[in-house]
Amino acid sequence: MDPALYEQTVAICTDFGVLTAAPNDGAYRTDLAQAALEMLGDLDTVGESFTRIEVELRPAASRSNSG
Question: What is the pTM of this model?
Answer without folding.
Answer: 0.56
